[in-house]
Design a protein that fits this description.
Rossmann fold, single chain, binds pyridoxal-5'-phosphate, about 450 residues, about 40% helix, 4-stranded parallel β-sheet
Length: about 450
């Protein structure tokens, strides 16, 4: 199809939206390893998981076989408020780069939470409500997940308790206020409201917290409050399942115009947006129907894929959660304090970890000053101020497009633009003032994290 026949923005109609999520595990020969009980090291049973997560989500978590799972009508109706999301042809960026490459991005920042996280937040809140629960607890780092979940809970009339990493709570008061606008209670973590929080505070007085710590507190709050369950915004199989709506819409839109991506790129924190974007394409690759180059992009300061170990590890600092087999830096790993760009979780989705381990995808780590350069370059020509997390994918997409300029190849590059960065202007400010530095952990730094891996 000629270039000028492809619009800047490809929108699907509501009736073209997928009515099922796609479960990539169904097509994986090597399934992701099961979650293990941290005490017995036996696979977690549905009953054990049911104490922490709501029933329907436990089923989805354990289901390695159903390729498609219906999206309930109520969730589809909610999706219609902000989906289908646009697939954008980055004509302006291509021109600026002088590349023959064709660049597309799927933009998930068109909702108040400012990111793709709402796709799973509404699903998790819906199943909790359906089970007759009173509320949910969760953790949030930068605040996007807490915001998305607060919105979803407000919509469904569910209580929402968010444990927010203390340093973000103090440095990102606006995120906190958005969550409170939606009626959530927001507690800085570690706090003295849980046993695990009190223990961490006693051991590390003055700590500014971490995601792993906030997860421990949120899990404890859920299991000790009647009518509550815990929900998590990334990493888990169920979250990748919900996020498959991103990839399914992308595939429908591309098929409609006869476009086939050569390279698919996404940023990777816990792996949910990348897993969702690539799902239907990975399915084709696993079934031998098509081939795609798939690249995960992570921060050089938190390099789970590129320098982590593929091992069973704790998902949280307090070691109360099940063990997951994943690429990990160790649950005690905390990125250097100058790290500004999100994607700071120590582990990675077990599904993506297995696919990476089996050679179905690549990973690369990028330094944050180059990430913010890419963010600025993109903002100046595409008119969207990207989240620092998303800008990891932009960096890799630009790098690939520049390679095409050098080789003259007109490759088609697709990347996930997960959200907007308006709450991250302190990080942009540091970059503009030349105060942003890159810290790459040494092998010695990483050894300390690996030393904390559980003995199996
Ligand atoms: C949370 C978040 C990410 C990273 O999380 P994944 O689970 O790896 O997708 C990326 N971009 C934005 C905007 C986010 O909010």
């Amino acid at each position: 199809m000629a270039k000028n026949e492809i619009p800047y923005k490809i929108y699907l109609s509501e009736s073209e939206m997928p009515d099922k999520w796609y479960n990539v595990r169904a097509d994986m020969k090597n399934k992701p390893a099961p979650l293990l009980n941290p005490a017995t090291h036996q696979p977690m049973t549905a009953q054990e998981l049911g104490g922490v997560f709501c029933e329907e989500l436990v089923k989805q978590e354990l289901d390695n076989d159903s390729a498609y799972i219906d999206i309930p009508t109520e969730i589809r109706d909610f999706y219609k408020m902000y989906r289908p999301s646009p697939l954008v042809r980055a004509y302006c960026l291509e021109k600026k780069l002088g590349t023959p490459a064709k660049i597309y991005y799927k933009f998930e920042g068109n909702n108040t939470s400012g990111s793709h996280k709402l796709n799973s937040a509404i699903a998790q809140a819906y199943y909790a409500k359906n089970q007759g629960l009173k509320g949910v607890t969760t953790e949030t780092g930068a605040g996007q997940w807490g915001t998305a979940l607060s919105m979803a809970c407000a919509y469904l009339g569910l209580d929402c308790k968010v444990y927010m990493v203390k340093v973000s709570y103090e440095q990102k008061p606006f995120r906190r206020e958005v969550m409170r606008t939606y009626g959530a209670s927001v507690t800085p973590s570690p706090s003295d409201t849980t046993n695990v929080g009190r223990k961490i505070l006693a051991e590390f007085p003055g700590t500014t917290g971490s995601l792993g710590c906030a997860i421990s507190e949120a899990v404890e709050a859920a299991v000790s409050t009647p009518g509550y369950r815990y929900v998590l915004g990334s990493v888990l199989n169920q979250v990748l399942l919900h996020q498959s709506v991103i990839g399914l819409e992308t595939k429908i839109a591309m098929d409609k115009y006869g476009i086939k991506p050569d390279i698919i790129i996404g940023c990777a924190g816990g792996g949910s947006n990348l897993g969702g974007l690539i799902s239907p394409f990975m399915g084709e690759k696993l079934r031998g129907e098509a081939d795609y180059r798939i690249i995960a992009v992570e921060p050089a300061s938190c390099p789970s894929f590129t320098r982590g170990q593929f091992a069973y590890d704790f998902c949280d600092t307090g070691m109360v959660c099940p063990l997951a087999k994943m690429y990990t830096l160790g649950s005690g790993f905390i990125p250097a304090p100058n790290h500004a760009g999100g994607l700071r979780y120590h582990g990675m989705s077990p599904v993506l970890s297995q696919l990476y381990h089996d050679g179905y995808m690549e990973a690369r780590a990028v330094e944050q000053t180059r990430v913010f350069q890419a963010a600025e370059e993109f903002a100046r020509c595409e008119g969207i101020l990207p989240a620092p997390e998303s800008s990891h994918a932009i960096r890799a997409a630009i790098d690939e497009a520049v390679k095409c300029r050098e080789t003259g190849e007109a490759k088609t590059i697709l990347f996930g633009l997960t959200g907007t960065g308006y709450f991250d202007m302190v990080a942009y400010e540091k970059f503009h003032n030349g105060e942003m530095t890159d810290y790459i952990p040494t092998d010695e730094d990483l050894e300390k994290g690996f030393a904390g891996l559980p003995e199996m």
